[in-house]
Records
---
Amino acid sequence: MIRYIGKRLLWMIPVMLGIAILIFSIMYICPGDPASSLLGPSASAVELAAKREEMGLNDPYIVRLGRYLYQTFIKFDLGTSYKFGTSVFAGLMERMQYTLVIALLCMALQVFVGTPLGIAAATHHNGIADRICMFLALLGVSIPAFWLALMLVLIFAVNLGWLPTSGVSNGLASFILPCIANSFAGIASQARHTRSSMLEVIRSDYIVTAKAKGLSEKTVLFRHALPNALIPIITIVGNGMGMMLGGTVIIENVFAIPGVGRYMTDAINSRDYPVVMGGVLILGLIFSLIMLLVDIVYAFVDPRIKAQYEGRKGKK
Amino acid sequence: MKKFLSLVLALVMALSMASFASAEQGKSVVVGLAGDPGNIGPFQGMGLGRIGILFTTYEMLMVKDGDTFRGCLMKELTKVDDLTYDVELYDYIVDQAGNKLTASDIKFCFETAKADGNLPKLSSVDSVEVLSDYVARFHFTALAAGDLESLLMECPIVTQAAYEASADKMATDPITTSPYQVVDYKTGSTITYKRNENYWQKDELTVTTSRHNVDEITFKIIPDPVQMVNALKAKEIDISAAIDGSYISDFMGVEGFDVTQIPDNTTKYLIFNFDSIPNAAERQAIAYAVDVDDIIAFAFDGIGYHAKTVGNNKYPDFVESWNDEEYYEYDDDKAQALFAEAGVTAGKTYRLIYNVADDNTRIATTIQAALGDYGINVTLIPYDNALFGTYKYDDKKSGEWDIMLDEGGSSNLLTNVWKLTLDSRDQTYGKTVGHVADEKLQSLIEAAINDNSPENMDAFHQYLKEQCYEYGLVSKVNNLAHTTVVTRAATCFRGQILPGACEY
Amino acid sequence: MSVTAVGKDHVGVRSKRQGQFGQVMHRLRKNKVAMIGLSIMIVLIVIAILSPWITPYNYAKTSKADRYALPSWQHLFGCDGMGRDILSRIMYGARASLFLGLMSTIVATVVGVLLGSLVGYYGGKVDNIVMRILDIIQAIPGMLLSIAISAALGSGIGNTILALSIGGIPMTVRLLRGSILTVRKQEYIEAAEKINCSKWRVITSHILPNSIAPVIVSVTMGIGNTILQAASLSYIGLGVQPPTPEWGAMLSEGKSMITKYPHLCIFPGLAIMLVVLCLNMLGDGLRDAMDPKLKN
Amino acid sequence: MANKDVLLSVKDLTVEYTSEGEVIHAVNHVSFELEKGKTIGLVGETGAGKTSIARAILRILPEPPARVPGGEIEFEGKDLLKVSEADMQKIRGKEISMIFQDPMTALNPIMRVGEQIAEVVKLHEHCSRQESIEKAKKMLEMVGIPGERFYEYPHQFSGGMKQRVVIAMALACSPTLLLADEPTTALDVTIQAQVLDMINDLKRKLNTSMIMITHDLGIVAEVCDTVAVIYAGEIMEYGTREQIFHDPRYPYTIGLFGSLPDLNSDVERLSPIEGLPPNPADLPRGCAFHPRCPYAGEECRKEHIELKDIGGGHLCRCCRLNEIAAGKAKEV
């Protein structure tokens, strides 16, 4: 197992290099001009051209790529944001604190609300609980997040005045509406996946075996069915966590939260190259680590997968 | 679970109580800002979000106060010769850290800003010479009409000592001469300013942009337009210039709220691509075919002004008589006749390129519908800001559009609006943005830029109108909605809120 | 001493005659909920195809008098900010939205399932390399990928579908890989291999039916997002250009009016919800029909 | 049929499945009795309803779609269909346990095999964890698996070993009744014999009664005392092993023997039963077997036929016994 993890960590080096080269090349072929967003709309074409030259944007691809890779991987410097004038790493970490709060809260909601809902639906297959749960789930995945967010604001912030409409200056209260709005789809999808997976597992022979042993419904459900049912859900949760750490642009925009998503989207829109490239690299690293974690959790939950990681000596 | 919930609720309540409590002390105002200023350092460019906080954060040598130019840090301006001016500062300026501002700081600021290259106008400043503690001599390489003022207004001034003391070139914690000091900057969220009790200028000499009628100013960045409305309704913000036109009725004449309407200094106009529409009659026909009233109704909820030239009529060099001239008002007969003359028949297709934004999409759609009445198709090509900015000036892209919906404005002169797209010297390929290489047009605009006398202005305007290389459409109106905490809203000449100058 | 094949149960016999596909279809046809979903989808598709002839108004016809008109008998769903009939725009918009939504979902699923099966089946090096490439692709923000596709390959419907589907592939692969890993080592797979089943057959008839369920769930839920995403592509040279209606764009146009004129958002939102709902009903039915554990 | 030594008495048991709106009659009015220490064999084709009978006894039918609309299952004086679920849980695994058909899927793939045995021990014998582990290891050794393999997972076991684990699990609490659902089908012949020997052995040691579900007449001959031939959810013929083996009367039973390779005769080909089992959702009127029965006559198609005692407790559900006897005679 440790060998496997070590191998995966080593693999991260080419992955990071791959991400760096790919993002650099994409930014290179993407039209759009960082100079124009820096100088504002009243700059003329000649002034823009001068600024581009000064920023070194007119150098050939290879020169710029080399400079970028040298700076990133040899000097470990992600550069300074064109727009904010601050270090990309510091900027990203500052934004990450908000994103992390939202991601963790949302994941918690998703797991601790979605999973029980899915279990309830599966154990009452085709019953009322199932129908209600699945209806909510469908609502969850088909209601656009911004719509839900704005409705929540209208009710709880504008009409009732319980919570702030937007911003991050009210402590935890600032995060309640964003998290509810953001996790609704996650809860829904978690519930559906749990249900689907539970249904598969509940029909398995080993569940009948467990029942035939005289175990109580609860024990059968939680000791035998759930752990098996959760295996595919690990991917969902891992992927969801990875995505959420990349920021949730819609929610961050609506609630005026200066999270990673807005930082990155703004950077993409204004072609703030250092932020885009540095951000993608760091987020890619985080994502890869989470995916590695997912694979490790897999191995812990499912001995069959662990056996596959450890080589093919498996069966005796 | 219940326990946890009640705990959370209690926490929430405690937190919200705390925030209300702190808001009670002193007079404070919260301004809703749609754009993120990002770097608030002095020598950054003029990205859209920055303009909103510029005058609260910094002072310049000169500002435009109402319709007149006034010295802010500058006490006297003396002309030495055509390209040389002496600037005399007040001799009692101190910044928020107590540093004295002297002529050497002026030299430092202009040189640093020019070297940073984010304020491209400064390229016409050749050098700044320190004559004495409070007198700096500016040497310019060239000065067109209005350039002197815009140059002196362009560069925010800070002391060299404070700038060098900052770790990040004042990107987050500028120390300036302004009456308000940044005390907290949560990047992307809020910027809070406290009034500087030791502001240097005497009240009777304070320019509008430096007034300080309130103790604390918070700019809150709210990118979503609906949330801006919600925040104002919930009175989390006191004033915003970014309330969508269709929501104005929620605040106008409503108890506790008020709305001030201020014409925007930008104008929407059409640029015709000379490569694909070389015939003046065809361009004129399109201009006649478009009904600006429709555009105002569809894109601006009925509130907007017809443009009378390429640019609006708020500039000092705008010639009054143009207001009464005919300027391609919607005329079906003329449009048909001109289309016939140009040989344009039904089935013709134009490609209209524009910068995507709600109002632009609607203007473009209105134009599309208007030309549709003549059997002419219009293909809309929307681009996001970055792509539009690139394609607009890209010679290679000129084969991909026929009409461009663009907008432009300037902080001082109409000629500066014209310069943006009509001066071929400012393009990298020696033609206007519309690919016109017309020597007469060029000589007329150069004349107007060098000397914006009504004659020169009119000559250029009339020629442009006759050729219809570009066609001014409409200027919008900004809605300043505010709670009655603000009794009179004040804006700078760029249409941005000046929270310190508002009355409470 | 054992009894030779005494007889086959009827399902098994049918499978011989109809093949696996026919068998799945047969079970699907018997599932009422799935059939309702399918019927509504077909109705929507028919509306989309016939929309140029059956919309009550021209979708692009603007009218100053009808700006933001509320739903009424003249305009069942009301009118938008340009005075255009929302019902007509939704009907016509079904063309772009359904086409883009369905096509890109199908492309993403097919590619994802192919890759996922390969990765899950072969494991080892193949797994490592493909998954790491996916790590790299997934690190790039979708918007940037789309802009790059638009810039490098130009506009056009194919590239739009590519841009929309590329984001969905990694998730599908990961899901499938995850669930194949759990069935990969089961005896029936080994048995199938030992009797010299072709790899293709092992994958399609033994591995996939046992591991596809999470993919179906995730794909059918994702289509709503895909339709919404299509709206943002029109600003970067892909997607559908105005005034041709498209549900995602209608929704984002109406977004800023949501508290003032909610009908601008509600109806396109409902249209998207309907599609998501139907596909989910169909997807659930399909999953049940494909589930080998339900055969007997 | 009253006997004081009866451990289990099933009366009129009926099981239905509802599938896509159709009602499938899996088990129809099945009655039989089992004495202490004895073994009954339920014989029939796949899908005949044998497994459903066993699962109905343990009440582990998947409900829905399955349903038990009628009947009685009397076990040690209690009607299992009426006891509470909590009481049932105390019976399952302890008094009655089951060996499942498919060892490949009967074990929880992500739980250590020993743990799965220890679980049932701990549950019913209320012992400490340590004791339950010891017992589980002992059980593993009893079925011929080294105790140290307690900590391994099912995927590390071969099919035969998994089946032994399943058996160990079923026998862990010394049940009074063992339901063995085709315990050897998934195994190869040598292991089959070992497993059967083992079951027989354990049965003798623990004086356990057993219901042996199989389609393999060889196994029946080896372990069963009585035999019930099940066809389309009904008992068609019932009798002692000797009665069934030496004097099969029902045409289906005869057919079963006909499809056995008889090493003593030099018949070149087996004679399998023609046709297919009936669709349980749409059973034929009259005798369920008549479409395939070479002796079927008019009356077989008309009405349902009752189970009749044809002597010595040998029951048969046929109205043409005489014709069959004649036909048999002719053949010989």
---
Amino acid sequence: MTTHYLVLSALLFAIGAVGVLVRRNAIVVFMCVELMLNACNLAFVTFARQHGNLDGQLIAFFVMVVAAAEVVVGLAIIVTIFRTRRSASVDDANLLKY
Amino acid sequence: MNGAIEAPTIEYGQLMPMLLVFGAAVVGVLIEALAPRYLRKAIHVPVTLLSLAGAFALIILQAVRDGVPEQASAMGAIAVDGPALFIWGVILVLAFISMLLINDDDQFVAQAAAVPGSPEEEDAVAQGGAHTEVYPLALFAIGGMLLFSSANDLLIMFVALEVMSLPLYLLCGLARRRRLLSQEASVKYFLLGAFSSGFFLYGMALVYGFAGTVDLGGISSALASVGGQDSLLYIGVALLGVGLFFKIGAAPFQAWKPDVYQGAPTPITALMASGTLVAAFGAVLRVFWVALGNLDWDWRPVMWAVAILTMVVGAILAITQTDIKRMLAYSSIAHAGFLLIGVIATGDAEQNSGSLSGILFYLLTYGITTVGAFAVVTMVRDAGGEAGHLSRWAGLGKRSPLLAGIFAFFLLAFAGIPLTSGFFGKYAVFAPAVSGGALGLVVVGVISSAVAAFFYVRVIVLMFFSEPAADGPTVALPSVGTAAVVTIAAAATVVLGVFPQPVLDLADQAASALFIR
Amino acid sequence: MEPVEIIQHSGGVIGVAWLMIALPLLGAAILLLGGRRTDRWGHLLGVVMSLASFAVAVLAFVELLGMSGDQRRREIELFQFIPGMVDMGLLIDPLSIAFALLITGVGSLIHIYSIGYMSHDPGRRRFFSYLNLFVAAMLLLVLADNYVGLYIGWEGVGLASYLLIGFWQHKPSAATAAQKAFIVNRVGDFGLAIGVFLIWTTFGSVAYGPVFQVAGQAEQGVLTAIGLLLLLGACGKSAQLPLQSWLLDAMEGPTPVSALIHAATMVTAGVYLVVRSGAAFFPVGSTAALVVTVVGVATLLAGAIIGTAKDDIKKGLAGSTMSQIGYMMLGAGLGPVGYVFAIGHLITHGFFKANLFLGAGSIMHAMNDEVDMRKYGGLRKLLPVTFVTFFIGYLAIIGFPLLSGYFTKDGIIETAMHHSPVLGWLAVLGAGITGFYMSRMVFMTFFGQKRWAEDAHPHESPAVMTVPLIILSIGSIFLGGYLVLGNTLANWLAPAVGGPEEPIEFHFVTTPGIATLVLVAIGAAFAWMKYGRAEVPVVAPRGSFVTTFARRDLYGDAINESLLMRPGQWLTRLAVFFDNRGVDGVVNGIAAGIGGTSGRLRRIQTGFARSYALSILFGAAVVAGALLLVGNI
Amino acid sequence: MELYLPILVLAVLAGGFAVFSVAIAPFTGPKRWNRAKLDAYECGIDPTPQPVGGGRFPLKYMITAMLFIVFDIEIIFLYPWAVAFDQLGVFGLVEMVLFIATVLVAYAYVWRRKGLDWD
């Protein structure tokens, strides 16, 4: 009955993707990205079970590490721009265009 | 819980160039930790440059002494084959000259954490602060590029993608001047990059679900045994493609490129525009040729559309740009489109090696010219930093004919005028594409080149036939590094434009055995 | 007699003939890249490189002399240039080596002269680097064994010429003149480029050997088209009608440049092109050859008429250059006999015109850079060496018997007469006008009352300037006789361009010859009455409409303006209209449409990260949908 | 009927649901603001002392949190290694020492650059 997990993973991924589009706060946007990564993890683990090999679980470990690194880098960048602009809205960062 | 697990074999010799770069990056972090502030740069520069040069020497050694390996290294995770060695060489050359540019003072922020315009920042500037972390960060990014282009396994590719991208996100935000723009570029690049790598990862999950493995060769054989009619696979391939297209800046995933290129410190832009593009094309080729080579009838029409859209968007939007770095960014988008033509032109083994050789040569010529062009951009300065707006470049030919002449030459190379390396680059990609049945694409390519040539010429006309503004920008006396970069790039553009045969032969040789699976 | 086979060559001095090009190129590179560090010795390096190149040329010439006539076309391969299309190589044959000797010989003299002339100029190093660049490019032009190599050299000399005309960029007139030369030459170069392209598509090769071998088999129409396109290129570079207008303005450059590039060498590239391609694309009696002769005659008359009305000594000489190149073009359209005299005149002209220009430079040096002849007068006693050498050059150009110009110009006139009396008599008329305007120049400058300004203190130039003058004037005296009498040049060139069946006999007493001398004498006498004996007003009188016509360069600029510039400007304005941000630029019609599209499309790039993310998501959906669609068909 | 088509359908449904719920929230949700809602949340009591500029915390908290994440995540590799330590042998040991050494380099950086100092 692994299909349910895949469905859940697809749901999480979609919520994450839509969240990136509709939320303005950079930190929330970023959390949505993390949600997408976790959705991937769920899919990997599920497929690993389906195929009966461990590759998927292994990949999930790596994805978690990468996600952690991304958090650190991302938060640093977001905090820097927040301190400059006194705003964490991604829409306010709008000098570079056309 | 008994019986030892057999230790994996890892061919350290073959991976040495990459390990050397990563090792130097770790050493760089140690230097940051242990060396006193005033000594850091003096230690970083030789460590960085020597490690890059050493890695390049190791590649030569590998190719000359041991020949090209025929098996993937590290239990099939990394493929050090002919194309990989060539791409590594190209990345290291580009990285080396980009590092010379990065080494130039006065490009990076004194204290990134200080709010722009605050007293803290003034203090940091007054104390001569500088983020020497730039060097290890760049080395990590370069190591990531090497790994990205040679990954034979989607997991390694994903990790490499992040190792390459994360330092670049940070580096983008470190410009000394126009810090608001720089920080904005950084946050945009980061959010969109993370977003797109989410797609890549999900695509990878779906492909894993289809094939039961993330090994590129394994995926290729699963295509034959599992049967290629699976929606799971197609969606997976599409999402993988999105992640890769984002990195090369193919339309409609190109939107980040102009903003990020404009905002980032120019030396970092040079590194991204050359090294990242080369590495990303290495990964594109591996995914689409090695893993999905048997599926080419399915992905090729989509890639056609992407290539055409990319060339057209790049060429057309470049015309009305008013900022020199944005214009170069759009030019980079158009060039990514030209390169995609080579990716599409597959066929039998001979055809493939022809296309591959063309792409390899193009990557080299384009990369070097790009670094040179951005090096020139760093030298044309206003009171507030680089003179980005094109109107400020008016009449530069009268103030500084040599510099303007060299820049004009680079632009002509981008346009693919004969006697420049760009001409042979285009020739090397377009000629096999015609024989590979992508004539339509080549026609679009030539037309977009013509449109592109127009905006390059416009800049040249602006530089040489307009009256200079009274308070026009000054041309900074270049540091030794910057002068060397401009000279090397100009020389390479000339030599590859007049006497390309040895390098073409080398690319042919690298491409002859294609990728190992 | 047909041209002989081209023989592959290796070894010897000819084997390293590429040094001729490489040495000055290296000099230019060192001087340009070395920057201020090379200021002190840069000019010496330039001279040494030029002399070294000359030495190689002489040695190659000697080696060639040591071979029998049918062995004298040597080709050396350098490298594969465009894979499978163009092999880069050099062709050392009597024609190219003659040019190489002229270029490096006269070039070296002018390098030496420039040491003195530019001694006070802060940009002397830059000047020498451009001169070296020019020599390298010009040598590539004449030595290449294929049209692509020629084209590269062609563009190279164009670039050097542009840089040197605009050398004193601080003068707006110099900058404008440089741009004008650049643009007018682009028209010609465009023709040449298309011509070369047509050669490649027709014959599948651009190397001289294979092309000339199979040229006869191509269709007549294609041959004519190629010929006319090459001629258009030649007209641009050699300042022939209708692309003549840039040469007069080009005199804004330093005088040694005018002597080297705009009199002795570069402007003769068109003649070289026509002679080199002659057998294949301009055979006697063909349409293309006819057009060449017509262009030549029209230009020789137009140049001479312009020369009569100029008060600026350099512009007068520029008109004269146009006119003399017109003679060469005329000769180049007349088949093998004509080639001999065209090349002969080219060489002698290289000497006496360089002599005259350098003389003019010496006068300007003495007169605080004053170029208006109305402000000269009576200079012969103050500048004795300059006067004597200038006078020799003058006698040579008007065709005074037994001097250089006499032999070669009369040769052309006689050959033309033989070919078509109309062309011949027009050429004779041109010679008469030459007699008038050159005499006018000499009388206004060296004779009569002194009319110079109070602050001018005329003095003789230093030896570094006068010695080249003396050497050139010796050439102006003897070279013509040496080349023409005894068929020296004809025999020498025969392996390269073919030759007449029987030796050319030079007749000293012929109807056109005597007519020419009489007309020249009348012209000179008329000039003496008007400018030698009578008082020359310091301000130019208004003059008749003919004078005005000539002073305005025969309205060449006005014609260009209405035919070429106006539509161009109109297009530009249209384009600028579409160029929404007002960055100026030259935009053409199609681009205007693309520009408009671009202007609208760029608004998609809103700058909002979230809208970019939307485009990524949208793209992902489309790519996935498309793949599913394609995969499931 | 393909095995995975339902995933696609559900993905579309999920996307629709996500868009719907986010879009509907501003219209259906009550908008009653009060002081407590706008306050920073600190274990149910008022933040002390009241921060200037609307309840912000010093950056030090963030730096500490980030350091925690980075150094905490290494356990993910240590744990499987510890479980299979016997079977992995010398190779595993060497690799793990290398890994920890690399992490130590980062630790040295943080330590020397005063990332661990509170003041």
